[in-house]
What we know:
Six copies of one chain form a homohexamer.
Chain A: E1 2-6, H1 12-25, E2 31-35, E3 40-41, H2 47-62, E4 70-73, H3 81-87, E5 92-94, H4 95-104, E6 110-114, H5 120-129, E7 136-141, H6 146-151, H7 153-169, E8 175-178, H8 187-194, E9 198-200, H9 201-215, E10 233-234
Helix pairs in contact in A: 1-9, 2-3, 4-9, 7-8
Family (chains A, B, C, D, E, F): Belongs to the HyuE racemase family.
InterPro entries (chains A, B, C, D, E, F): Asp/Glu/hydantoin_racemase (IPR015942), Hydantoin_racemase-like (IPR052186), Iso_Racemase_Enz_sf (IPR053714)
EC number (chains A, B, C, D, E, F): 5.1.99.5
Amino acid sequence: MRLLVVNVNTTESMTASIGAQAAAVAAPGTEIVPLTPAFGAESVEGNYESYLAAVAVMEAVRTYPGSFDAVIQAGYGEHGREGLQELLDVPVVDITEAAATTAMFLGHRYSVVTTLDRTVPLIEDRLKLAGLLDRCASVRASGMSVLELEQDPQAAVEAIAREAGRAVADDRAEVICLGCGGMAGLTEMVVERTGVPVVDGVASAVTIAESLVRMGLSTSKIRTYAPPRPKAFRAWPPSP
Amino acid sequence: MRLLVVNVNTTESMTASIGAQAAAVAAPGTEIVPLTPAFGAESVEGNYESYLAAVAVMEAVRTYPGSFDAVIQAGYGEHGREGLQELLDVPVVDITEAAATTAMFLGHRYSVVTTLDRTVPLIEDRLKLAGLLDRCASVRASGMSVLELEQDPQAAVEAIAREAGRAVADDRAEVICLGCGGMAGLTEMVVERTGVPVVDGVASAVTIAESLVRMGLSTSKIRTYAPPRPKAFRAWPPSP
Amino acid sequence: MRLLVVNVNTTESMTASIGAQAAAVAAPGTEIVPLTPAFGAESVEGNYESYLAAVAVMEAVRTYPGSFDAVIQAGYGEHGREGLQELLDVPVVDITEAAATTAMFLGHRYSVVTTLDRTVPLIEDRLKLAGLLDRCASVRASGMSVLELEQDPQAAVEAIAREAGRAVADDRAEVICLGCGGMAGLTEMVVERTGVPVVDGVASAVTIAESLVRMGLSTSKIRTYAPPRPKAFRAWPPSP
Amino acid sequence: MRLLVVNVNTTESMTASIGAQAAAVAAPGTEIVPLTPAFGAESVEGNYESYLAAVAVMEAVRTYPGSFDAVIQAGYGEHGREGLQELLDVPVVDITEAAATTAMFLGHRYSVVTTLDRTVPLIEDRLKLAGLLDRCASVRASGMSVLELEQDPQAAVEAIAREAGRAVADDRAEVICLGCGGMAGLTEMVVERTGVPVVDGVASAVTIAESLVRMGLSTSKIRTYAPPRPKAFRAWPPSP
Amino acid sequence: MRLLVVNVNTTESMTASIGAQAAAVAAPGTEIVPLTPAFGAESVEGNYESYLAAVAVMEAVRTYPGSFDAVIQAGYGEHGREGLQELLDVPVVDITEAAATTAMFLGHRYSVVTTLDRTVPLIEDRLKLAGLLDRCASVRASGMSVLELEQDPQAAVEAIAREAGRAVADDRAEVICLGCGGMAGLTEMVVERTGVPVVDGVASAVTIAESLVRMGLSTSKIRTYAPPRPKAFRAWPPSP
Amino acid sequence: MRLLVVNVNTTESMTASIGAQAAAVAAPGTEIVPLTPAFGAESVEGNYESYLAAVAVMEAVRTYPGSFDAVIQAGYGEHGREGLQELLDVPVVDITEAAATTAMFLGHRYSVVTTLDRTVPLIEDRLKLAGLLDRCASVRASGMSVLELEQDPQAAVEAIAREAGRAVADDRAEVICLGCGGMAGLTEMVVERTGVPVVDGVASAVTIAESLVRMGLSTSKIRTYAPPRPKAFRAWPPSP
């Protein structure tokens, strides 16, 4: 099967890195197609950039020329998953929700460790909408931006492990979700430092998408995610 | 003071109608500037269209050439308010939230009557995020689309009054919010039919925006709605 | 229009101060009528005094000889708003709820800073009943009583700014509500110290009451706030 | 031990009836002292009357000349319990909460059947404040007023049994609480008609008050229910 | 009346101690019958042991040769109460729930202080199922195991008083529940150290069971706790 | 990899059927080992039987002679998953939770259709503990027992499709979970009748268990699911 794994920002090196993480966990026979939006911010760290990414991701998927079996939205705490579900007949999996449901099979409560303080409320809001906040012990920020994560992985591990440790000790988390696509390479080191399972959203989403496809399940079209009604659009889609 | 009242769809006649409603309630000295997005759907009835509207509304406000004191997002249950709050230093008021908080001063529980069944979950989700769901008795659909509302106001009143009546009798609502920009002209007739206060989101939002400006209050910039960080964008904003 | 602004305690100087705050924000053409209850405690800091105030406020409003367009109950976290709504045909606005809904338009989460530790649960309970607790980060006490606030404004600013700072840093509040009628004069200083918007309940309530009147909206009479049924009372109202 | 059982209305025959119910379940050695407030409504069916009752009940208890070991507030869904807890060193038990906690030992979910539709929100609010709403399936109104209950017990049984039956069948209640002091005599007949346990608030409250006294437990005085602070009162207490 | 008080572990000395606590608070005429399960762990501190205890307690009660009027499950945060309710016609009272409801009559919020950190989530889960978590400020662990409690009561008091103090100061608890059958003897000392009421689950459960019996109330048999349906069992009950 | 799929009842034909369903969805290379408990009820429909099953399932897994990579507890709404998590180092997946999280990727809200009315509260309770109730529209009973399902599949389809239809129309579900191991064969027919995705718990659990194993994730051992502490057991495990 073929899975589109769509980055939310326009940094191609991140798309490559996300694609590699996805491929690393994919089952034999699963083809991972990493996709970068045609427009938007180099990194997504707030609502303005996230709403723009939502539209850019939808356009990237809508105009993807080939066929595919499921789509993974590889942004943590970002807008847009519901729109993809309307547009597509195949399953759509958001990595924020994928990580949370995976974590909930592993411990009584989980925490998310993300990048900047300002993105904490976005993640909390997405988890609230997804109905997955009840067993969330906390969402904590390492204080490192998306781009800093890429540039200084050792400092990133330190900062993330520190917050993960606080989540376990103070917030009573038993599992940690790494709340950023760019954090996946750090999983092993954080496990070593905290002694609890560490969940990567991209990997989780790949296995969930594969599972839905294998079971022949896809988005319900009966109400919320029915296809958009036919109607006139002004100046959209943008001319290429 | 000058208030931008931004339609979420690209139907100019609706922008005019929303602008008229806003002007009707505005205080002396308040100038209402109705705005239509430069791109997007003629009516917004689902997540795909709503995410697109979020970006189009942000672009419309971001590129508005004049000065203004507050912005009203005049779409019911739509995405995007948080992005506007990041972009702007002036207050942003969403009509969904304006209607709900107004209703909560008038009765023990309120219901929303909206257009199509498929938009009910969008409104519920926006109220959930806003923390205003606790006293919401129900969100009900009249079954009429945004455009049908405009074309057959008499049928619209019938359909809306019927659902409002059920909300009062069966869901124990004591106040009704009209869940669509295009419904505002029908307020009086629905009051007559149901005997309960009927709240219009646009009018509520105008008074709230005026009040915030008068009190010298605006969006907190300390965390969630801090200005976007400086960063590179690919192919955005769209060239005119 | 004429707004009754009713103090909950019997200290006339506070009534005057509340009236002045209300007048400062009132629109041109709005007449503020400050009212002091005929009986009750010099300051209200607990349930016994608050229940007594609820009845005294209702009596003050019920026996007010003139006409009026709306009533503001100017006590933070106090009982009684529901009773006023039953008695009156005009809108009733409680400052606790007015401050909270105003704050919710300004930031992701808000905190309340009040006077004594013992009043924290009263405020929490009123916000819970009002369905406005979901985005409340915390209710914190400055440790200063209502009367101390009046006597030593500088110490009050220190104590309030300290707790407001903790609310922002530790509880992740983005907006502060000053949880006492007597705190309104301190708004500006607390803004300077914390860098977040500070909401005053009396000012908020005035603008909300004006807005409701302007929109022609008042309390729903269909169920919870229907007028009291005709019945016999023993020894009440008290003879003058 | 001596228990004060305080009626919330001023109808002496109801006080007597409540006292009789209390005495019927009281343990040997427990003396029941029924008390009628000195002022207030002949029946309490709404917020205005309930706030007045709160103060009247507090005055009745505060001025009771003898000693006592606990107080029962015998009004369903009424205000005031927190004030009594501040004033007294002995336990205070509200019949709404007593019935709910008792019901929760008997079935998975319980419903309350009360008198008039307008009192339903008052009961829901008191249960919400008490944190006892989670397993409440519904609060339903029989449509009969407090005084009608007394006058036509046969019609009362019919109306109550009908709503209790709906609570069991439609709302999935497994236990019924009779939501009015005046309903206690009907317990047996409602059991026969519905086949589920029926809980009387007055009886429940008596056993809980006795138990607290027997265990040497009383209200925590550390914060919320600390004694009122010493302060000046204007024109209160009312001169006799 | 005769109450079965069933220990959840197989340590006879604990059964005796629990029985003594129960007897100390029992009303004249109440006979306490302490029961030890025939199989299971010497102390119950986790889910495996607790599930085993659930079955062992049910077997102990099911095979008890005499008659009895109510059953008390004397394990804090343990599984099994629902099964007993299915098997029996008489009331079943769990000490976790008994303590919580008792505490809720005494203060605005309560905390539980239990033994080991690992049992905290079990208690939280049982309170969540019981719908009694809303006013729970925290569940805290003293760090001492069940058996250590018995061996070193002085150290136990120190550890429990320390956590109780934190619950009062940091979590805003106003009442403490001792979260372990074996803690009952320490009540008085913890009261002295914290100044707040301390609730013992066994004592609470005895008074509640007595009250239910006295009011003629027992488990609703209409749905959740209907008797098990007749069916074939393999290899169960175990041969003696 | 090898997955133990443990039936909760002692009917071997059901074990076989569950095993077949699991095998049908298992990835190449996954070996399904169906297991029947050595003791317990022929079908599990209530708390007594479910608690017994919890212990029997733990014994079956604990004494399973071979190695395995994950365990699936194949009972809907049953007790015991937490105990297995303590005992094992490999992942444990409960089919109730597996179905719910799968459904949440497919639609805005889901409903469960189960067998008997009396098991509805058990399923609701397990979903509440798992924090998966927020987007659950309803749990509905078909009225057919576990054994009737096996005997009359055509009537089962009718009854299930009827309740599924009501869940979609009345409760606004967009996805249906079949709430019983024995229902899996009916999936396709229910899809045809309702037009919404139908999720089978066993299939979902198999894919989730495989995914966890593939990602190298297992139960957090840091607190709630730490291994049982070493201690003495009386008369347990039962002698063979």
